[in-house]
Task: inverse folding
């Protein structure tokens, strides 16, 4: 009897809950998360087709820009030959109409203005296409770029939607077969604010009976401050990161532009325009790509959570052992 009273007086020692695998996860995402996501989006042939379409889309867009440069050089070369023929005609007319020789003229191109003489040193190619043919080729390049871009967007959207649907169905099927302990130990929402609010609404009668409104209000304010600070930190970090990317991009474009003024004196205008335009596109794509890569990592964290939910313990069936039911 004495031992029984002592056992009743002693507080029962309860085991502290162990950290779940989700709380213990640290570091960068594993490569298996990305592999499982893309495997859910389609087979190997679908992914290869997506990669090919992405490469073709970029090649078509860059090819259109390169053709504009080549076309501009062709038109500049055509104008140079036209001015050269005009200068030759003027030279012949002047030679036939007067007996005085032209002093200091050793080349026909020396009669023309200074820009024409500089252009003659750089243009070593010949005019290949007419203006109409060049216009048709440019139209084909633009139409091909638009069509390939549409196909690329549709295929990428299809792969992402298929992956999301399959992962959701797998997770939902696994949760339906999960144990009751899973629903007791996992909140219905990711944010502590929503979890605390849901728990407060469910136990509203008990909270009012115990007079714990002030305590619950302080806990909610603490969760709200943590939620707001983390959200503001995400926005501030994105803006600051974008600002420094803009600074680096502008410095790079300035270096490219001034390099043609200080280092290279024989480049054509179309080549300079192509270099500057491609530099602007490259810096814009780099900035957008880095920002989107951070968003992908954030969303892949949710994919990692979904993959963890697909591996939860299953509720034993009615045909299992009596001790496991």
Result:
């Amino acid at each position: 009897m004495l031992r029984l009273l002592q056992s009743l007086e002693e507080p029962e020692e309860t085991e502290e809950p162990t950290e779940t695998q989700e709380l213990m996860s640290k570091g960068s995402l594993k490569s298996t998360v990305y592999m499982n996501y893309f495997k859910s989006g389609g087979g190997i042939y679908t992914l290869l087709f997506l990669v090919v379409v992405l490469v073709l889309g970029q090649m078509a867009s860059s090819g259109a820009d390169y053709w504009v440069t080549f076309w501009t050089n062709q038109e500049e070369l055509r104008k140079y030959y036209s001015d050269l023929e005009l200068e030759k005609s003027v030279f012949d007319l002047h030679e036939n109409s007067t007996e005085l020789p032209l002093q200091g003229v050793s080349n026909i191109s020396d009669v023309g203005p200074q820009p024409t003489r500089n252009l003659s040193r750089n243009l070593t190619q010949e005019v290949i296409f007419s203006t109409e043919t060049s216009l048709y080729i440019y139209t084909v390049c633009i139409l091909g770029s638009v069509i390939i871009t549409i196909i690329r967007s549709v295929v990428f959207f299809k792969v992402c939607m298929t992956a999301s649907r399959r992962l959701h169905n797998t997770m939902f099927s696994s949760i339906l077969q999960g144990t009751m302990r899973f629903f007791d130990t996992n909140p219905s929402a990711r944010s502590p604010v929503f979890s605390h609010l849901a728990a407060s609404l469910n136990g509203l009668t008990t909270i009012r009976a115990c007079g714990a409104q002030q305590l619950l209000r302080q806990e909610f304010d603490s969760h709200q401050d943590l939620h707001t600070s983390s959200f503001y930190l995400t926005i501030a970090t994105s803006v600051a990161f974008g600002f420094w990317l803009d600074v680096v991009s502008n410095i790079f474009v300035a270096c490219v532009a001034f390099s043609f003024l200080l280092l290279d004196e024989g480049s054509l205008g179309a080549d300079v325009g192509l270099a500057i335009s491609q530099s602007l596109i490259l810096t814009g794509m780099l900035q957008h790509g880095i920002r989107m890569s951070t968003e992908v990592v954030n969303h892949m964290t949710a994919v990692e959570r979904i993959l963890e939910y697909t591996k939860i313990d299953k509720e034993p069936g009615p045909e299992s052992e009596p001790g496991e039911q």
Residues 44-97 form the longest helix (54 residues). Residues 1-24, 99-124 have pLDDT under 50 and may be disordered.
